Sequence to fold (486 residues):
Amino acid sequence: MHNQDQALIFESSTPGRIGYSLPEMDVPELDLSSLLPEGYLRSEEPELPEVSELDIMRHYTALSRRNHGVDSGFYPLGSCTMKYNPKINENVARFNGFAHVHPLQDESSVQGALELLYDLQQHLIEITGMDEVTLQPAAGAHGEWTGLMMIRAYHEANGDLKRTKVIVPDSAHGTNPASATVAGLETITVKSNEFGLVDLDDLKRVVGEDTAALMLTNPNTLGLFEENIVEMAEIVHAAGGKLYYDGANLNAVLSKARPGDMGFDVVHLNLHKTFTGPHGGGGPGSGPVGVKADLIPYLPKPVITKRGEEFVFDYDRPQSIGRVKPYYGNFGINVRAYTYIRSMGPDGLKAVTEYAVLNANYMMRRLAEYYDLPFDKHCKHEFVLSGRRQKKLGVRTLDIAKRLLDFGYHPPTIYFPLNVEECIMIEPTETESKETLDSFIDIMIQIAKEAEENPEIVQEAPHTTVVGRMDEATAARKPILKYQKA
Fold:
């Protein structure tokens, strides 16, 4: 974590130097031995660095500048929609009436907050084509688990206990089979055909009386729209199963197509992706779940409803799967998403889809000359390249990703989905300018040429970052997570 310009804070320590001091206590010192067991009391002072407040501020500010975020650079992370977070969302989320409410306040004193949540639910119902929405789940995978638990409860309520299998495509997000497992269900893989879409014959083979659901992203993880989705829904529904929509790629179809109209029974959304809530280093997120009418009884409780002119939490849900999160979702992220939807409007959301798809196809066509294109057809919001051509020259996809760091770009998703060799998955989003896209494309072309003419510079990358090329296996298996004296 350090180089010639920035020593670790421990190495900056000078005996006797302090950041601040407090006045001497004018009350008797507390005897900790009366409060804590002897084994928990220190026998000597902790070995902490002794630095001034100015030095400590400069140290942590310098560390913060090493982080990469969408506000500091292009973030083409395929399948994750890392788009710009409008600052108006932040301003609204900081309104006193939103930022200072307490989750234990009486409903009568937070009617404005409840109205916003209720209104957000109505917007999401319209956007997805569902019949009801819960805002409780804390993130996408949490929403997946919530939706699958409702599907499981539905089958159990109908006495259909044999339905324990969830079908997932071989290009599915890794959270799909993981969420199914945590929900107490099993997963079965359905293969993709030569066009990168779900193989209908294989789907017919694996679907049956034990099918609880088909879990699907549309567009799929390859950035391709599942054009046979209506027929797929008919196949699963005819067998008594449900369709689950992983909303990670909803950015590709906003105001153009609705999961509910495709035949899906459950959908989760990533408000921290499609609706511009910040990702926040792994959280907080927000993963609302929408359902069709026959699954409404199983929604997590409480459900926000409107009684007359009053907004209330409805706990009278005897078939509910129960509460899935303390209080009611990540309120601040919900406020940001609501602000985004209201400020964009229907036409703005439609433009999101159009520009996201345009940007992805523009980049794909410009890069297809220099990298292998596994599926040579129009994509949606993201696309997949393969580094097979470069691998034959001794340059792996991992090397390409590391080389991108030298130019200040966060690498795209690599080696996923698993059904594409040396996979490079890129999602430019609609918020990036053509100049940014062209700059990234030029660097990708440069790296492709380096792989042919000077492969060592790619194989040994990165060269300009604080941390250089590491031993990946040792870093993963034996990470050093604390400061160690030399």
Notes: The radius of gyration is 26 Å. Confidence is low (pLDDT under 50) at residues 1-6. The domain at 87-343 is CATH 3.40.640.10 (Aspartate Aminotransferase; domain 2).
